[in-house]
Amino acid sequence: MGPTISMPGAVTPDARVVAGLQAVTDRMPKPAGATDRDQVRSLLGAPDAFEVAFDLADGGRRETLIRYETWHYFELESAFEFADGDLIGNMPADDVPPLAILPRQYDPSMFRADMTVADVKKLVAAPDSLMRIDAPSELGVKATAYYGEQLMVAFDESGLVLVETYPLQGGRSEQ
Amino acid sequence: MSPRRNPLEQIALGSLAVGLVLAATLGPGTAGDAHAVDPVTYAVGRAVTRFLLGTLPHRARDYQEINKNKNADLAEVANQQTIRQYQSDRGWLGGDAAAQEQQRLDSLRQGIIDRAEREKRITKYDYDRAIGREARTAVQGVITSLPGIDPTAAKFVSNVIGGADPLSAAAGALNDPSKPVTDRLAIVKAQLAETQAAFTSLRDRLRDPNSLLKREVDRLKDEAFILSDPRSQPAPGELEQRVNKLQQELAQTRDAIEGAWRDLTGSDVKINKERFARDDTWLGLNADVQALKDTSDATKAVIAAAMIRDRQEGTEENVRELLRNAGLPTGEETVKRMAAESISESLKAQI
User: Fold this and answer.
1) DSSP string, chain A
2) B23 touches chain A (CB under 8 A)
3) Which ipTM did the prediction report?
4) What pTM was computed for the model?
5) Among A21, A59, A174, beta carbon nearest to B18
6) Chain B residue with Cα closest to A71
7) pLDDT tens-place string over residues B104-141
8) Chain B nearest C-alpha distance from A122 (Å)
């Protein structure tokens, strides 16, 4: 008679392990806030850098404006993406060097779709330092960007469509 | 009493524990479904865990590739559409099979577009990148100060870039033989204290406020204290050696910090190139596309119809010939599967 092979059955979690696990999860900080976005903030604080984009729903087929946000946490090398406050994605993000200077003077909540260039200029220390750049014509959109003080904002014919903050670091940025 | 952990550490430990236990007891792939914690905490915990456990190999794509891949996939669908139309025109494909195939191709086309749109969202808008890239190119070298930063810190960074910072002054003072060592070390301590103050001032704005270079500055200041304090000062011979070493280390630290901030410019905030395969929404959309690609029943319907029409036997040779005539792949496994399925279809059709 050949050797007997015994197959292991399904693993049943030990009650003590489950209880221990529950104790660990009970000690975890509880997120606070009405939206996923607020809850991420309650756990991780304000983002190191962020993008805010205002876009029409269904790729422009509906008039409803959606506020998309991407929050970067460099220490975690991670980015969280929100649509109107709902968490829709969590993605890996590239880190920046230890001595990079982060755009902590800005917070996503400072920016709204109905803002004008004048409103944005009130948020920066030296408004005249913002550089104006028009979108390349081949892109087929009439858009203008203002750039400076670790901030880029873009307006099209409908108003503010994009906000991006960025860290400063040594060396030349990748092209 | 155990030391108090910060919230991030607690989330990391908790999510690691939850993930490991669930994986061990329920098998892989279940941790995300069985939310032992609420979804936001789970997402944050997953990010922390992913960071702790390192990266996994995934495909890399950039924005240009999104459109290229989408167009290639859509061209493939259009090609299939042409083939099916050709087959329909000749009566080889009709009825429910034709309708189902049309629905599949429509869904596949939409799925490819939706997936590409998701990839675009992940990669950011095209004009965002175009404008941002142009702006960054234009602004390089223009920044000579740091608006929005505490003046002490801004002055320090500007001075580092210009070579007139406290670390340079400290290194220069130590190299001045006209002063007694004690006086030189007093200057070094003062300059290092100023450097520490600048780091403290920058603390909230640095990616890593406790970076290796910051810690090196702290260590050098401690060393300067030891060398200048009569109670800890070494013998003259060793003192000279250690002062020389301190001078070299000051210069190296200054060079490293200067290197970190030279040509200070804006860096892109980037989503990792390995992003798509770790984005749940994209994974879902991609799975839909793959499933639609693999579920066509039209080919076997065409072959079955041909067999009925021509009274052909469902041999592998006949199937291979029919596939070749239709411009479809004739791999061995495909031929065998099609032969078996087509016989079944033709029999059902003839009953």
Assistant:
1) -----PPP-PPPPPHHHHHHHHHHHHHSPPP-SSSHHHHHHHHH-S-SEEEEEEEEGGGGTS--EEEEEEEEEGGGTEEEEEETTEEEEEEEB----TTPBP-TT--GGG--TT--HHHHHTTSS-GGGPEEEEPPGGG----EEEEETTEEEEEETTEEEEEEE--EESSPPP-
2) no
3) 0.74
4) 0.65
5) A21
6) B269
7) 899 999 999 888 877 776 665 455 555 555 555 544 44
8) 12
